[in-house]
Amino acid sequence: MSQSEPLVCLPGQRLCLSDPTHVSGQGTYERQGYIYSTLAGTVDIVEKDDVKIIEVHSSGKQTLVPTQGDIVTAQIHTITQQFCKCHIKCVGDKVLGRPYRGILRREDVRAAEKDRVEIYKSFRPGDVILARVLPITEAHTYQLSTAENELGVVTAHSEHGHLMVPISWTEMQCSKTFVKEARKVAKVVPESVHQELSEN
């Protein structure tokens, strides 16, 4: 790690082995022989009596990263039979400074009939989805869920590249060719309804 290029890390990221010469300091914790970061920021190594103290300091401006329970906007880039991979672009209505890797497993697509979910009938590469961040179990990748009515595909393009419109919670239709494709569609509540609810 060169001092000119500080290492930026995420919460829960494994930094190095914990041993007699590398110990956990501010902004980190030790677990099962490794030192992990507790926050998003830059890694600092403080040398004291031949021991390297590993610290993490958050940068001056608040580093926005997805956290458990957040609703995020992500774009699908890869699908398999078991999961789809995506790039997380926004947390709520705030655009992230850089995309983060997300994974949506088959069992987290729908709340009901999980064993009957087929990824290719729910999402396609290029789809933009709304999803909720699940508890973090591994660094670098966020596990996502669309198992709520309001979560799922919000923007999709057909195989011909045209914008698709939702016609049910399980189908979208190409606006040009009218060909239907299966999707796990997000039940987007119109702004006017939000306003009425807030006023009542």
Model description:
By secondary structure, the chain is mostly beta strands. The protein is 4% helix and 44% strand. A hairpin with a 2-residue loop joins strand 6 and strand 7. The longest helix has 9 residues, at 191-199.
Characteristics:
four-stranded mixed beta sheet, mainly beta, single chain, elongated, 16 strands, 200 residues, five-stranded mixed beta barrel, disordered C terminus
How are the elements arranged and paired?
Blueprint: E1 8-9, E2 14-17, E3 22-24, E4 28-31, E5 34-37, E6 41-48, E7 51-57, E8 71-79, E9 83-91, E10 94-105, E11 128-133, E12 141-145, E13 152-155, E14 164-166, E15 171-174, E16 180-182, H1 191-199
Parallel strand pairs: 3-7, 10-12
Antiparallel strand pairs: 1-6, 2-5, 4-5, 6-7, 8-9, 8-11, 9-10, 11-12, 11-13, 14-15, 15-16
Helix-residue proportion: under 10%
What portion of the residues fall into strands of 2 or more residues? 35-45%
How many helical stretches? 1
Largest sheet: 5 strands, mixed, barrel
Look at the structure and give the mean pLDDT: 85
Low-confidence stretches: 191-200
Q: Which value, in Å, is the CA radius of gyration? A: 21 Å
Categorize the overall geometry: elongated
Order of helices and strands: EEEEEEEEEEEEEEEEH
The strand line-up of the biggest sheet is 8-9-10-12-11
Report the end-to-end length measured between terminal Cα atoms: 56 Å
Structural class: mainly beta
Number of strands: 16
